[in-house]
Each structure stands twice: as structure tokens, then as C-alpha cells.
Amino acid sequence: MKELEQRILLDGRVLPGEVVKVDSFLNHQLDVAFLSKMGQAIYDRFKDQHVTKILTIEASGIAIAVLASTYFGNVPVVFAKKGASSNIGTDFYTAPVHSYTKNKDYNVIVSKRYLSEEDRVLIIDDFLAEGQAMTGMMSLCDQANATIVGLSVAIEKGFQSGGKKLREAGYNLDSLAIIESIEDEVITFRPQ
């Protein structure tokens, strides 16, 4: 998505450790009109997959997932919570996840009420680096015997292994923008 690449170059910042900050429009302050365009792009790529649920992880994937849902006829959006809370009960799926950005391990959970074997799931997230969050969400789907029809991320760090592993495993992964490299704080995108 050329518009996303341009927006990353215009408003994004590179921090130490090849961290790409896009919090001015994607994952802190939200540019809803722009996120809606991203949701439309995701829909255009997966509209023939008969999606019945969209799965994401709290918190940064929620906005993109909700706006994509509007194009899929408002299919339910389920978000994996980072840890149990007293109001979710005890009947849930759980999977370990390591956050590359926060360098922290946690368990994500989804209530068994909201993910089942009848579901055709599109998994959406804001970033893909090593693929830990994506793998965790895929595990939740596997535990529910749900069908994973696609994986979509806003920004993939193509120089890290997550996207390559998922594609080699045969998953239908689509990234709106793929960063090929970051050198001296200069971002280069992979042609799509």
C-alpha cells in the first residue's frame, strides 16, 4: 500500500534497535480516516475468504481490525487479551507470546465463547517482526479448531524472520507495507 509507505516515511521515526514509531497515526494517536483506507485494503485482499471472525491482539491491532470489519459486513472482532482478568472466567484458550518491542513474555487469552470450529478467521495485527504475536494468535485458532483463512499486518519488518517463516509454512500472509531494511535511520521498502 503505497499510501502507508509514504505515511511511514512522512510521520514515522526510527528508534534504536530498529524500532519503527508510527504512533502519530497507527498505534497511539489514530488517524481514523487513514485506518479506514487500510481496512479497505485488507478487505480487498481477503474478501473472497468468507471471513466470519477477525482476531487481533490488544491493544494496537484493535483499531485496524475494527475498521476492516466494517468492510467485511461488520463481522465480529475478537481480541486476545494479554493475561487473564476476573471477568473473562476460566474457560479460555491461551498461548504464550514474546513481545519484540517490549522484550516481555506474556500469555494471551480468548474466551472459548468467541472462537470455535465454525469460524473462518482473519488474523490482523499492526506489526510483524519475528512473528511471535501472530504465532500466538494462530495457536488460539488451532486450539479452537477454527480455520485460519489469512494473516494481515499493517507493517512487516521484512528483514526479520517472521514473515518468511509464515509464508514458508503456507499461510496466506499479506502485509500492507514491508520494510526491507533500515540503515542509518533510512527506511527502504520491499517492492510489492
From TrEMBL:
It comes from the Bacteria. Pathway: Purine metabolism; XMP biosynthesis via salvage pathway; XMP from xanthine: step 1/1. Keywords: Cytoplasm, Glycosyltransferase, Purine salvage, Transferase. It is an enzyme of class 2 (transferase). It catalyses: XMP + diphosphate = xanthine + 5-phospho-alpha-D-ribose 1-diphosphate. The keyword Glycoprotein does not apply. It is found in: Cytoplasm. Signal peptide: none annotated. Its main location: cytoplasm. GO terms for molecular function: xanthine phosphoribosyltransferase activity. Its EC number is 2.4.2.22. Residues 34-158 form the Phosphoribosyltransferase domain. 5-phospho-alpha-D-ribose 1-diphosphate binds at residues 129-133. Xanthine binds at residues 27, 157. Homodimer. Belongs to the purine/pyrimidine phosphoribosyltransferase family. Xpt subfamily. Converts the preformed base xanthine, a product of nucleic acid breakdown, to xanthosine 5'-monophosphate (XMP), so it can be reused for RNA or DNA synthesis. PANTHER family: HYPOXANTHINE/GUANINE PHOSPHORIBOSYLTRANSFERASE, XANTHINE PHOSPHORIBOSYLTRANSFERASE. This is Xanthine phosphoribosyltransferase. It comes from Peptoniphilus equinus.
